Amino acid sequence: QPTASLVELGHYFYGITIIGGVNGAGVYYKIKPDGTGFEILYHFASSGTTRVPNTQLIYGNDGYFYGTTRHGGSDDVGTIYKIKVDGSHFVQLFEFSQANGVTPEGKLLKHNGVLYGTTTRGGDMGHGVVFRINRDGTGYTKLHQFGNNDGSHPFGGLVTDKKGNLWGMTRIGGYH
Question: Do residues 14 and 30 make contact, with C-beta atoms less than 8 angstroms apart?
């Protein structure tokens, strides 16, 4: 079951599914625009580690795609990963937890060589966070933690404006 938009790179589209594959926990695949050349490049694990990929891949201009999962990690609340375009060198970069965010949603944003994203829950107030992380998995920082007065449960990813400000949306709340 596909879960995010395809990404075009070279002569292929690349994508992920949230279920399927030999472990039933999703796959990373490629397919040609004419519908031929379909190939599963990676099978996500069925438990414990990174599984159930849930956001569109982004290309890092370093030979890797970056993405997030809905499950996996020690607390089973999501991870950030990278994978070589050819499906090799899969690396789990970060594990989410209640303290630093739960269930990442919306594709990652690559801006000035750093990744930005959101989680729908978790953080100190439990309503989600905006985060920043280096592409090697170091430097995770919560940039904002949502509470009752500024919305909760961010969704849909982030974008930047010409000044480099981050913009996003929440499912619930905000000022009245």
Answer: yes
pLDDT tens digits, 4-46: 788 999 999 999 887 777 887 788 999 999 999 999 999 988 6
Q: CA-CA distance, 160 to 109, in Å (whole number)?
A: 9
Measured in Å, how far apart are the chain's first and last C-alpha atoms? 38
Pair type for strands 64-71 and 51-53: antiparallel
* pTM, full prediction: 0.91
Residue closest to 131 by CA, chosen among 85, 91, 87, 168: 168
Give buried/exposed letters for 46-63 (b at 16+ CB in 10 A, else e): eeebbbbbbbbbbebeee
Amino acid symbol at 54: N
